[in-house]
Amino acid sequence: MDKDDVPLLGKLKDKLVETKESWARSGRGLTGSHGQARLPPGQRQTVDWPVLDLGIQPNLSQTEWSLTVAGAVETPLRWSWDDFLAQPQTESVSDIHCVTTWSRYDNRWNGVSARHLLDVVKPRPSARFIMFRSFDGYSTNVPLDRFADDDVLLAHSWQGEKLSREHGGPVRVIIPKLYFWKSAKWLRAITFMDKDSPGYWELRGYHDEGDPWTEQRYS
Ligand SMILES: Nc1nc2c(c(=O)[nH]1)N[C@H]1C(S)=C(S)[C@@H](COP(=O)(O)O)O[C@H]1N2
Ligand SMILES: [Mo]
């Protein structure tokens, strides 16, 4: 019997099973941290992209921008815009989860992967945390293993367009698996540290690590 001879009901049933399987994979309908839920607990989905900052949006041209990487690394560096663009470029699609409860799905980022940066600077074995510093005076800390995730990047583009000034252009950090306050905008410097040290919001009551799946919102 040829596969076209399968009764129609059987085909429809197969189709439904496939759909349900894909829902199960994406965690459709789940809101808890179990399974493969896409929306972390306490979050709601938005389609727009809110802007959050400290009231200052640095206005940096690409030539004014540079990134310094220092601290517990074998090879400290300073990348100009041209140096940054000369690195291998990567693309990554991920969801944003802000501690103020909005989540935005399917953001397509382009930039330089954290993995590549780590290959270049070579953290010393003692390095366990990193601090990001920004041109507006903001800072935020993350464990090194969170930065080393394969979906982390220093992004210069969003949805194929140059990252806007209000969202942190020329370059911002993207760490999809942590609340968005960990994703520093207007990135200026990265310091590798042996010991943990709190950043701007971490000093003001936000959680040290910021995992949305276990609702590490406030300390
Ligand atoms: N330099 C800098 N980075 C920052 C912030 C900031 O005020 N300054 N705010 C953080 C917070 S609390 C959030 S939720 C996101 C907001 O990014 P967006 O404005 O692109 O949505 O940036 C994070 N990175
Ligand atoms: Mo935030």
From TrEMBL:
Q: Which residues form the Oxidoreductase molybdopterin-binding domain?
A: 58-201
One Pfam family, please name it. Oxidored_molyb
Chain positions covered by the region annotation Disordered: 23-42
The record, for SUPFAM superfamilies, names:
Oxidoreductase molybdopterin-binding domain (SSF56524)
Alphabetical list of CDD domains matching this protein:
arch_bact_SO_family_Moco
This chain's protein is named: Sulfite oxidase-like oxidoreductase
Q: Which source organism does the UniProt entry give? A: Magnetospirillum sulfuroxidans
Q: What is the lineage of its organism?
A: Bacteria, Pseudomonadati, Pseudomonadota, Alphaproteobacteria, Rhodospirillales
